[in-house]
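Journal club prep — side note

Before the paper discussion, L.F. wants everyone to see what a predicted structure for a comparable chain looks like in token form. Sequence:
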Amino acid sequence: MKNFTLLFLFLSVLYFSNARGQSETKPWSFSVNANLINLTGDETEKSFNLGGPAFAFSRYISNGFSLGSQLAFGKADNFNVSYNYLAFDGFVKFNLTDGNFIPYLIGGYGLSLFSDDLDRVSTFPSPQTGRTLFGGIGFNFYFNETLSLKIQSSYRAINETDVFSHLQSFVGLSYGFGSTDADGDGVPDKKDKCPNVPGLSEYEGCPDTDGDTIIDKDDRCPEIAGVPELNGCVDTDGDGIADPDDACPEKAGIEEMNGCPDTDGDGTSDFEDACLDTVGPIENKGCPWPDQDGDGIPDKDDLCLDEKGTAANNGCPELSPEIVETLNEYGSRIYFPANSSQLFGKKTKDVLEQIKSVLLENPKGNILIQGYTSSDGGEDYNIDLSRRRAEAVLEYLVDLGVPPIRLEVEGYGELDPLEDNSNPKGRAMNRRVQFKAKRN
């Protein structure tokens, strides 16, 4: 009783192990068996005859079906005659289940030889060889993925003389071999598109961790069930952008903003916009640049933060064209002697008084005093002389009370003459100063 209990426990452990039957992963099977023969019919002695060996070799096809052949040796005694037994068959086998204990059906066609060593005349290879149609049942009890106990019994029907229909039973061991299954998922490596990762047969051996019908190797989000249109990912906010690509996955946005909204439409996404309801540049986080003096020039570009100015003058004020024109009308009455930068004559000084008054009445804006000469003298000399003439005007205006910071000079020599330098009158007109609005 104790030995039976131990045997039962041993077989139970084997049954609940991870063994498998003959399949695509182990398509080939070879068995070595003892051969048990029981003759049937009216003129036979009902006795069992143990012999052997018997060999079987088969190849799994699909859906539980296998094809194979078997060869069996033995002896069969019938009354006082002893026969040498040989059987060779082709068969089809069908597994009824899969797992550790696999019952199966078997059927086939072959030859059965019962030889008593007496010569007989026959057109067949031997009168003691009979064509045999057989069918039966058996089972394999798997110890592991390759080795199993095999028990099979079949009835072999023969309608020829000098041979016997009989029951044939095999008891032996089967060994499965062939294709490998490295990841153990039941899909042979040669058909497994993911041979190193356990998967599912319906996905050719590849896994689908999240169960969304998109295999992991093609799934951008293998642990979250998604949709094929988004390569296996989800779109939580429904804006058409998959969550991994969406900078704002819980708030519907636009593709240009990487899935975030842009409430004020200034090109800065709400995710980065510090002023959601006010249009502003990206460089200032979506907020408008400050403009302290309100002149339309942002403080970052405004050289005169506390004074309204013009864009052309970098935010600083400048004299209007009308004022500059008035200054030049006065300036056209300032004359210089030849080769001289001195200011002389009451009329000239009266003109400078008028220029001073215009500048003081318009305190916002600076001027550039441009000095000129006639064509008398060399180029370098004339440049120097024209600058000294402009400086003379500047010094006089400063003496009259014009802030020096508002004035600047430049000498242009004999450039841009107003009149012809070939006559005295023209040269006199060209010895002059002009005024221009100064810009920063």
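L.F.'s comment for the group: The first strand starts at residue 28 and ends at 39. Keep this in mind when we get to the figures.
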